[in-house]
Amino acid sequence: MAEELTPVLRVSTREVERRIDDGASLVRRMPQLLDAMRAGELEAYGARRVLAVVDPLDDEAARSVDALLADKLVDAPETAWQPGNLAQRVRRLVERVDPGGQVERSRRARVERKLELAPGEHVMSSLEVSLPAEVAAACYSRVDGMARSLRRGGDQRTLDQLRADVTADLLLGRDPGVTPLEAAAMVSLHIPVDAALAISDEGCELDGYGPIPAPIAREIMTNERSIWRAVLCDPGTGEPVDLGRRRRRPSAVIRELVRVRDRECVMPWCHRPARHCDHDHEHPWATTDDGGGGGSTSVANGGPRCRRHHRLKDQPGWNTRYDPVHGNTRVTTPHGATYTAHRHPVLTPTRTAPTRDTSARCAARHDSPTRRVLGRDAPVHRQAVVAAPARDTTDAERQNDDSPPF
Question: Which is more confident, 313 or 120?
């Protein structure tokens, strides 16, 4: 059949075989996803992203993921159907349906890491390296940090050119002309404290990637070069409220707390990690003509936006609103379409937040299973996230910090 369809569809035989396999998998293993395609809610690329995630599962497990996904998408915003968002939801469902298999697949994939050279057009080639997600993220962060330092120093090359040239210099043993900061190669790993202690195997997430198996998270966490840092969370909301810190500069703390809290660009369909985004004042910082002030430089007024969407925010016809406190994003396009999204909390929130004046509960939080661990990796640096009672953790000086966004 594939050979017969090759000249009809005018694609390669391998592509025809992929389409046949995808169609058979949808009919046999993901019937509700197929119904969504028939209803016009999903096109082939998005379906292929989902099928790639569930491909290792047996038919019964795949149908379980299909049913759970259909339930979650009933009341989901339109942005949930975007292929990247959809694939991330499916990864979480696969983790729930087949946690043991996910661990084995992850370990096997790490063993199969590799480097490939792909010749391209116009005397160019691509160098692709397959690495564990946390190591790849740290490598990119380091190269990106060095490229941005060169750019700030007056280098006229674009960031893409700088990242490519810095990578080549490092691999060839040449001096790229800049020394990166330690923080330029850090990645966050979120782990519930009970998962860190091997009591549970749920809730682990890698910054900029998504859910990962708890045994893999523990292996990353216990790397001998780990460095831990506390992030205090309100268990009633699951949101970070302060950072344990050795540094004194308030603006760095505010920016880092915003990155930890939001983890990605706040645009509903953008998954650029917050560490590679601009720190945006939701209400612009300014002094008005009548003597009043604009938005403060604070955690409650900050959010990460990648450079593209930071600039898009002020384009005619675009109306983007982000509520940093509640994590709600609302975007209206020039043609009038409106999209919404909601931030997932760092912790799974409890039903009721503890009161501020209950000392017994404050003491009990040290034994609470709702605590989480957050790691930052270069290649594997770590931080601890500990749930704390709801409280105001930024003083007036920090709330009114006027230093500009980076």
Answer: 120
Structural domain including 314 reads 188-399
CA distances in angstroms from 31 to 21, 37, 87, 164, listed in the order given = 14, 10, 17, 43
Burial of 226 (0-12, 13-18, 19+ CB in 10 A): middle
Number of domains in the chain: 3
Residue 81 contacts by C-beta under 8 Å, 6 or more apart in sequence?
41, 42, 46, 73
Decide: pTM greater than 0.85: no
8 A C-beta contact, residue 151 and residue 160: no
What would the pLDDT profile of 104-150 be if each residue is shown by its tens digit? 899 999 999 999 999 999 999 999 999 998 889 889 988 998 998 99
287 DSSP assignment: B
- How does pLDDT run across 204-239, given as a tens digit for each residue? 878 777 788 888 888 887 776 655 655 666 656 666
Largest CA distance in the chain: 75
Q: Mind listing the pLDDT tens digit for each residue in 4-26?
A: 889 899 999 999 999 999 999 99
DSSP sequence for 315-376? STT-EEEEETTTTEEEEE-TTS-EEEEEPPPSS---SSPPPTT-HHHHHHGGG-TT-EEEEE
Is the domain of 223 the same as that of 268? yes
Residue 211, SS3 per DSSP: strand
**Residue 141: exposure state from Cβ atoms within 10 A (0-12, 13-18, ≥19):** buried
Question: What CA–CA distance (Å, rounded) separates 298 from 398?
Answer: 7
Same domain, 199 and 301: yes
pLDDT grade, residue 352 (50/70/90)? very low
Contact 227, 376 (CB under 8 A): yes
Distance CA 114, CA 328 (A): 40
Q: Which residues pair with 374 in a beta bridge?
A: 190, 383
Residue 405 lies in a domain: no
Place of tokens 């809730």: 203
Tokens 């962060």, residue located: 141
Contacts of 222 (CB under 8 A, 6+ apart): none
In this predicted structure, what is the pLDDT of residue 397?
Answer: 38
Per-residue pLDDT tens over the stretch 262-299: 888 988 888 888 888 888 888 776 544 444 445 666 77
